[in-house]
């Protein structure tokens, strides 16, 4: 089949129009997937830390280390760029029947690589709370 003269180069033009949109959507999808992965991993670390804290309430350093390093002892590098200032361990309503342990991650910076949205943004705060056993 022969192409008509007025259709020459149309495939190249269509590719030039579609490729930037496809590339933008690909990068945006990868950014979104990375954000979901990191947010899920951080949430699991916070849950693990508060579970550890229920049995070791006095070990606030160990609780923070579980969030930062995945273990009770300090490691060489933190996960996902978390810093000790991002992790807050607190006891709520001490001395009452509603005594709870709370672990928060706040002001965690997340980098987005998608064009037109490029930059660093604060991730939403992640909190886990469990009741502490009564001391009788």
Question: Could you describe the 3D structure shown?
Answer:
This protein has 136 residues and is α+β, with helices and mostly antiparallel strands. It has one domain (9-131). 41% of the residues lie in helices and 19% in strands. The protein contains 2 helices and 5 strands. It has helices at 10-55, 60-69, and strands spanning 87-92, 100-105, 109-112, 119-122, 126-131. Strand 3 (109-112) and strand 4 form a beta hairpin. Helix 1 runs antiparallel to helix 2 (60-69). The model has no long low-confidence stretch (mean pLDDT 87).
Report the average pLDDT across residues.
87
- What is the number of strand segments? 5
Strand order of the largest sheet: 1-2-5
Determine the structural class based on helices, strands and strand pairing. Answer: alpha+beta
SSE succession: HHEEEEE
- Radius of gyration (CA) equals 24 Å
Domains (count): 1
**In which range does the helix fraction lie?**
40-55%
Q: Distance N terminus to C terminus?
A: 90 Å
Share of residues in strands: 15-25%
Judging from the principal axes of the Cα atoms, what is the shape? Answer: rod-shaped
């Amino acid at each position: 089949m022969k192409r008509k003269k007025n259709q020459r180069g149309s495939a190249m033009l269509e590719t030039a129009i579609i490729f930037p949109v496809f590339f933008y959507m690909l990068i945006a999808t990868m950014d979104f997937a990375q954000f979901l992965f990191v947010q899920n991993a951080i949430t699991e670390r916070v849950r693990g830390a508060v579970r550890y804290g229920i049995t070791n309430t006095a070990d606030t350093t160990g609780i923070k280390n579980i969030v930062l390093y995945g273990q009770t002892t300090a490691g060489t590098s933190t996960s996902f760029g978390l810093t000790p200032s991002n992790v807050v361990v607190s006891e709520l309503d001490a001395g009452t029947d509603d005594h709870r342990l709370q672990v928060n991650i706040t002001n965690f910076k997340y980098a987005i690589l998608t064009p037109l949205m490029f930059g660093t943004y604060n991730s939403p705060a992640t909190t886990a709370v469990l009741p502490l056993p009564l001391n009788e």
